[in-house]
Each structure stands twice: as C-alpha cells, then as structure tokens.
Amino acid sequence: MAGLIPEEKITEIKNLADIVDIVSETVVLKKAGKGFVGLCPFHAEKTPSFTVSPDKQIFHCFGCGEGGNVFSFLTKQTGCTFPEAVRQLAARYGVEIPERGVGPGGAPVTSEREKLVAINRLAAEFFRRELVSGPEGQRAREYLAGRGFEAETLKVFHVGYAPSQWDLLARHLGRQRIPEALLLASGLVLPRRSGRGCYDRFRERVIFPISDAGGRVIGFGGRIIGEGSPKYLNTPETPVYSKSRSLFGIHLARPHCRSSNEVYIVEGYLDLIALHQHGIRNAVATLGTALTADHVRLIKGMVGEHGRTVLLFDSDEAGIKAARRSIGVFAAEFVDARYVVLPSGYDPDTFVFEFGAERMAAEASAAKAALPFLLDRAVGTHGLTNEGRIRILADLAEPLAAIADPVARSLYIREVAERTAVDEAAVLEKVRHFVDRLAPPRGRPEATAPQEQGALSRRAASPGDRQERQLVMMMLQCPETLAEVERWRVVDLMENGALKGIAEAMVDLGRRQRFVVADLVAAVEDPRQKQLITSLAMQTEEWDPRGCMRLIRHFVDRQGRRRNQRLEAQIVEAEQARDHQRLERLLTEKQQLAVEQNRRKMKIQGGER
Ligand SMILES: [Zn+2]
User: Fold this and answer.
1) Same domain, yes or no, for 498 and 430?
2) Which residue, 127, 402, 500, 520, is the most exposed by fewest CB within 10 angstroms?
3) Is residue 488, in this structure, part of any structural domain at all?
4) pLDDT tens digit string along 551-569?
5) What is the 537 CA–ligand 1 centroid distance (Å)?
6) How far is residue 151 CA from its own chain's centroid?
C-alpha cells in the first residue's frame, strides 16, 4: 500500500508520531476525559463531536462518522496520498526514508504532487532573486517601498518579481531538466500557441508565493505594478493548489490565531502583508475568491469553537458584495463572523498605514455581526425614503432568512422593522418567502451518523448483531480479552460480515504483536470498516473481566443453540426430501457440534472453578 516505503519505516513513524500533536495543527483540541475533543474538520458543526484518543492513537467523529489513525487523518485533511502522509511525518519526526527518484536540484522526490511543490520552491527562489538583485527588480522594489513595505517584511513573505521577458522562468526551470509536462502541470508556464515550447504565465509582476498550512509553496499570485489589467493573476487549479482551499499567510498566522483566539480575514495580498508589518499577525487573506466552506473550516481549525472571526473587507462595492456572500457560508458552518466597515475609500492596507495598528484594533473590536453590518450598509446606500426602504427590505430578506437561530432571526427582524419604520409583519412576510426556499433538506449531517446506518444501526440491528457489536467493542477496548475470544473460537460463530471481519483482523494482529487500535485501523482496507472500528473503540463503556467472560459465554451458548436449531430444521427438510446424502452430512455436522459444545461446557466449568 505504501509503495516504495519499507514497512519497518512506517512502523517507526507510527511509533514516533502522536495523533494529538498532528491533529492539533489544524483543529483546536481540548481535554475531555481520557481524550480530546474539537470541532470536526470534515463536517459542519457547532458543538464538538470530533474526538481524539491519545491512548489508542485514533480519531473519530460522532457527527459524520469519519475516523482513523494518524495517516488517515492526514490523507483526509490535506487530500494527500498515503505515501505522502508517511513522508510528511517522516520529515517531521526525522525518520529517513530511502528514496528512488531524484528530482530538480538533486532533491529526492516521488509523487507528482511532491515534484510540483519542489518546482514551486525553485520558482519562488527564482522570483525572489529577481526582486532582490535582478536588473528589473529595482522597479518593483521601488514600487513596494513607495507603498511603505519594508524589506524585512517582504523577506518574511518571500515576495518576488517576475521579469518582463517571455520565457525567463521557463528557461531557468528547463535548465534543471524538468520535463515540460511537469512545468505545464505546475501552472507556471503556458504552451506556446505556435510551435513548440512554453512561456511564463507571470511576467512583469510582483509575485507572492502562496503556502499551505505546513509552509510548502503550492501556488503564486502576481500583482501588476501600477495600473493595468488584470490587476491580479493567480496560479490556476493544479494538483497541489486549489483556491477554494487555500488562504494566503496561513502558515504564518496559525500560531498567532491560536494564542489570540482571533483571526482577521482580508481580501488582498498587500492587505495581509500590511497588517503583518504593523504587528497584526493573526490574519489570512482569501485569494480573490469567494469564501468557501473549506476556508471556514480551516479558520475554525485555527481559532476553535469560541474563537473570534473578523472580516476586514474593502468598503467598495466589490468588498461589500464579498462580505455579503460570505454570510451564508459562515452561517452554514455555525461561525458567528464579525464585519468591519472601514471608512469609505480605505482598504485594510491603506487604513493601517495611515492610522496604525491601534486604530485598526479598535475598528475590529467594534466589528458588527452580519445583519447589523448589512443593515448599516443598506441604509447608507439606499437612504430612508420610501423607495430606499423598499430596496433595504429587498436586500435584507434573504440574509435574514439565512439566520438559523429563530430567536436571533426574530430579534433582527424587529430591528430592521424599527430602523426602516416598516410594519414587522410585513418584514416577516418578505423573509418567510426565502425561509421556505432555504429550508435545509431533511436529515442534516449533524443528526445522522453514517457509521451507524444500515445493518449496524443500533435500533434496527437484530439481537445477534447487537451482541456481536458489543463483543467487538469489548475486544477493542480491552485487548486482554483477545486470548479468551480465540480460546472460545468466538469469531467462527459471528455472523455479521463487517463485525466478523474486524474481529478476525484483531485476533490475527493480536497473535503477532501487542494489540493497538491504530494498527488495526491500518490493517483493514475498507474505509467503512475503519470508521466502524474507531466508532466502537471510542464508545465509553466500563468493562470488568467477569462482565467480559459473561458476554463471551452468553454469545457462545446462544450461537450454539441457534446453530443446533438451524441444523435440526435442515435435517427435517432433508428427511422430507429423502435426500440421503445431505441427511448424512447434516447428521455428522450435528454430532460434531455436540462434541464441540461439550468441550466448551467443560471449559466453562473449568473456568468457573
Ligand atoms: Zn465530522
């Protein structure tokens, strides 16, 4: 499964890696009993149902059912492959993995994604050199200095410059023997329309490398110097860069967001860099794209359940539009975002340069919730004439309907009615029209737990399934019972396919080594089985040795009786059909069963002494 990575290396990494450390990088965790809980990064929720167990080295979400070990967490969270997750952890914990391929700059690489990250790093270095010492860099340096940016700040963000020639970068990377197909996949170059070869996507622009949360360069943004169009140009979607999942500055902001429990969201590269230069480091920027649920989950992972999210958008039309669009996204993820309206004509960049960090902090602390913010804007734009009031209501009906909490909604409806002097019933009527349209589909993700669905549903399960579920839970939570389970051949008697498979894998694993849940998760292939394991392992049940034995014995007895009954019915059938061959086979089976049961009974009596 891990491809070229030797099994013992995977084991070494698994033993070194701590799932709590790894998960904490993207989810704010707090202690709860023997484990930790936090907001799930895989589904929208407002109260934590995502649990991590340091003892078992697994995670499980009781909301959406996702679960697994440290490797599954990384692959799900970052979208990387299993070998990539192993390598990432290897690098982090200083485990050396023998490599096969050698990539640009002699760096050992394997997957396409890793190659693309390596190319991006080379490109970022190239752009940086061009800014600092290239012949054209002077102009860009002057432009940035003219806007107040210090060399030290630009260095932190590794800001660079793409010269005006058509293929300087393409040739530079070509000299490193990087295949053209990879260059094209990186999005840094485009194929020439006529003839062969390719040319640079970014030319005559200030370049901002975009990093993922781990600080790896995944893409670039380029800003034109002075006027021109397009003002901004970004890396297109590539195997490593997706604009809907990336936030500029996230790798620098994370520790500051953690310690302050607060995050500022701005729109532009320079907005963010300006804040940083003024000491406001708990900030990230969206990359000229509407906020998505993925962005919001990344943000939640930085500030946690009770964190504060403040949007600092431009006060121009586009900024307001972006803020408006974000309201529904935050509401769907149960995040109470706050909005700052900067004085007209300012964006966060120009504001912080002119008024300083303290004024910015003051503006942020006066940030408004979404609805009051929109109401202010609408009143400001449309005025309170009859015509204006009609427009205000048209603007606000949908955002009002999007408020999930009925109490909050009715309070805001009253506020809008009072401010516009329109009858509350009339406002309500307008809102109701949208509420019906926005009504969430039945069976919200929070209400259902996929791992409990189907044959394993607690309510719908047969008594047999329930007992088998209980047995597997016992085996997972007290591995000391595995010997007894084997002795009684419990697994042979199990009937539920999924549970039996898990029990089998467990007994098998227990024979070879000290049993660890995280290893079992790694040993099964089916993702649904993985989820079932983490779900059962995380249930809090108290087990005592006598209770365990009772459960095993009860199950063995019950299954024995059931098999006997089934055999007897089949014998009657065979007799009636005069199928002598079958009858003989069944009778032999019955005899064997009786011997087996006798043996078990003796064991029980022996065990009870
Ligand atoms: Zn979840």
Assistant:
1) no
2) 500
3) yes
4) 888 888 888 888 888 888 9
5) 16
6) 35
